[in-house]
Amino acid sequence: MSTTTPVTGGFGFPLGCVAAVAVAFGADVAGATTHPLYALVPLALVVLAAAATTTSAAAAGVAAVAWGIDAGFVFGREGHLVFDAASGRAALVLGAALAAGVLARLVTAAAVRARHRGPLMPHRFVASVPSPRTAEQRRTDHAASA
Question: Quick check: 112 and 73 in contact, CB under 8 A?
Answer without folding.
Answer: no
